[in-house]
Specification:
The protein is of the alpha/beta class. The chain has three domains: 35-45 and 399-571, Rossmann fold (3-Layer(aba) Sandwich), CATH 3.40.50; 64-267, no CATH class; 273-393, no CATH class. The chain is built from 26 helices and 13 strands. It has helices at residues 49-59, 81-88, 92-104, 112-122, 127-135, 137-140, 144-157, 166-179, 185-195, 204-211, 219-228, 235-243, 249-269, 273-283, 298-306, 310-315, 317-322, 331-340, 343-349, 353-365, 379-391, 425-439, 466-475, 485-493, 515-526, 563-571; strands at residues 35-37, 43-45, 65-67, 198-199, 202-203, 402-408, 416-417, 420-424, 442-448, 455-457, 499-504, 532-537, 553-557. The strands form four sheets. The chain has a seven-stranded mixed β-sheet, sandwiched between helices. A two-stranded antiparallel ribbon has the order 1-2. It has a two-stranded antiparallel sheet with strand order 4-5. Helix 4 packs across helix 5, helix 4 (112-122) packs across helix 7 and helix 14 (273-283) packs parallel to helix 15. The longest helix is centred in the middle third of the chain and has 21 residues, at 249-269.
């Protein structure tokens, strides 16, 4: 076994052994648990609506499956029926509080379900829920992109068409006003409004027209004027307002916002790369502020790189290499290396190791996904990405649970991961196993193999690197993939676990005992009624192992950089 061999006596294995040849009756509820009888007479754990809500906010579905979406996530009212039921029971305020909690604590895989749920609350008929939802708008929609997507969802779910009622107009108007009260105020609003000018079919001009925003000769008023030019105020009026020698912070902020807006206007008209470089360095302009023609300039990218956030820099390493910015012994190479190896930047950016593994594989390939962009791979940058992968392990939040990881070692695990085709299912399984061993105190690892029991021990220590783990996996014989086998093996060996995680490709066979029944047997004989099961079909495009009525079972279909978030939230009991 890997990690720490779990002490049976310390974990108090229940003396409830099932006689050989028998199984725990599915027609009887587990003792001291809240189970309900399903249509076939079996007892399963009750998935309450608040749990369904949390699952929806995290994964975009009420059920027990996280599906890697290759296209845009399609969300409808039918995906989130639990929200309507909770509101109808008078629990709308709790729904809004949960939405806000998942947003502020970054518990969701993607922002889409959170924004959709908030739109449903804003468009409901319950006045208390609607008021709470609009008050939460500024906290949940932290950048204009979120606001644009919320508006799109709000129009789609509005039962009365796409009209803007008074509450909706006021709520959206207040989003802009509240932004000015945040740290950085309207200067930050100006920066973000010029960076995110249009998304999801909306522009700021569209939104101002629809919400009938009302302003005066202040900083926000100037931004509305700049984006609209159709509110009846003449340029000379603003020139007079800016020329007035009024004391106080409001007028000072107006002048600063007007000066910053002029910088953005000048940047869009700029044709000289050296001038653009000076503007970027002085005002910390983002890539979106740079004219398209200048985005082919090495000088411009070198300036952008200095203040580029970690995630954006990793995403653009190929582009910068194609421009020669990351050549050997160059300033760009040194800067990229320093950033990638910075513990402080990795910690603040909260980049998951799996994201860095994918970035390392993608950069080392030397071309983009579609093959249009090509670059010369710099070994130092590739090595820095690999080092960042290992450094980021230190910032993964532990769950404190007891794990049994089961890895499929069949030849089909060489298939590309659905949702992240740059890596194979074997790479993903090995990386996630190594991550769990390094971050959790109590973790054992087994492999599906061709031996008599179908399960063999796999030794992985916290000191092993990814190549070592892959080499050990590749040496093992392989056979069938029985997802229940690791659970049945845990019953035979009387080992206490809180979480079973199975990593396989798309061949999720269930063998003679269904995993859901094996898990129920394990709960009975171990006395651990809250034992969970996660089955990751890494190369699959659709399967179902989990019992949809059991909130302690979960399927992962495909795998992407958001999947670890879903797994963590599920193990912690947040979804």
């Amino acid at each position: 076994m890997s990690g720490m061999d779990i002490d049976v006596e310390e974990d108090e294995w229940a003396d409830l052994s099932i006689p050989e040849g028998h199984e725990a009756s599915i027609n009887e509820p587990l003792p001291s648990t809240d189970q309900t009888q399903n249509a076939s007479g079996g007892y399963v754990f009750r998935t309450v609506d608040i749990t369904r809500l949390r699952r929806f906010l995290c994964m975009g579905t009420e059920g027990g499956t996280y599906h890697v979406h290759t296209g845009e996530m399609v969300l409808t009212r039918e995906n989130a029926n639990c929200i309507a039921r909770l509101i109808n029971r008078g629990e709308g305020s709790q729904v809004v509080a949960t939405i806000k909690e998942f947003s502020l604590q970054n518990r969701a895989c993607k922002a889409d379900p959170i924004l959709f749920a908030l739109a449903l609350c804003c468009r409901c008929s319950d006045l208390e829920t609607k008021e709470a939802a609009y008050k939460a708008l500024s906290d949940v929609c932290r950048i204009p992109t979120h606001l644009f997507q919320f508006i799109k969802f709000a129009q789609e779910v509005n039962p009365n068409g796409k009209g803007w009622g008074r509450a909706h107009r006021k709520g959206v108007s207040m989003w802009y006003e509240n932004y000015g009260n945040k740290k950085g105020g309207n200067l930050l609003l100006a920066y973000h409004m010029t960076k995110y000018k249009a998304r999801f079919g909306f522009t700021h001009r569209d939104v101002f027209r629809l919400c009938h925003i009302k302003t005066s000769y202040d900083a926000l008023g100037y931004l509305v004027y700049y984006f609209c030019h159709e509110n009846g105020q003449r340029e000379s009026d603003w020139e007079m307002a800016l020329a007035r020698k009024e004391e106080g912070l409001p007028h000072l902020e107006l002048k600063k916002v007007a000066a910053l807006v002029k910088v953005f206007k000048d940047a869009k008209k700029c044709t000289n790369e050296e001038t653009m470089k000076r503007m970027i360095l002085e005002h910390h302009l983002a890539r979106e502020h740079v004219p398209t023609d200048l985005l082919k300039s090495r000088v411009v990218w070198e300036a952008l790189m200095r203040h580029m956030p970690m995630t954006a820099m990793i995403r653009n390493l190929g582009k910068m290499s194609s421009l020669g910015l990351l050549e050997s012994d160059s300033f760009g190479e040194s800067l990229a290396e320093d950033k990638l190896k910075s513990r402080d930047l990795l910690k603040s950016a909260r980049i998951h190791p799996f994201t860095l593994l994918v970035a390392h594989k993608a950069y080392s390939k030397g071309q983009g996904e579609l093959g249009r962009l090509r670059w010369q791979v710099n070994p130092k940058i590739s090595d820095a990405l690999e080092e960042a992968f290992y450094l980021s392990f230190d910032y993964v939040v532990t769950t404190g649970k007891r794990y049994l990881l089961a890895i499929d070692v069949s030849g089909s695990m060489n298939a590309p991961v659905m949702g992240t085709p740059i890596i194979t299912a074997r790479d993903a399984a090995a990386a996630m196993a190594m991550l769990t061993v390094r971050t959790e105190q109590r973790c054992d690892v087994v492999a599906f193999s061709g031996n008599q029991d179908g399960v063999t021990e796999l030794s992985i220590s916290p000191q092993d690197d990814l190549d070592t783990v892959l080499e050990r996996i590749s040496r093992l014989p392989f056979g069938s993939t029985d997802c229940a086998a690791p659970i049945l093996d845990a019953i035979r060996s009387k080992k206490m676990y809180d979480v079973f995680v199975v990593y396989t490709d798309s061949e999720t066979n269930v063998g003679s005992v269904h995993p859901s029944k094996a898990l129920k047997n394990y709960r009975t004989v171990s006395g651990n009624a809250n034992a969970r099961l996660i089955v990751c079909g890494l190369a699959s495009n659709g399967f179902s192992i989990a019992d949809p009525g059991d909130p302690l079972m979960m399927d992962i279909v495909g795998f992407d950089s958001s999947a670890p978030t879903a797994i963590h939230q599920f193990v912690k009991g947040n979804i």
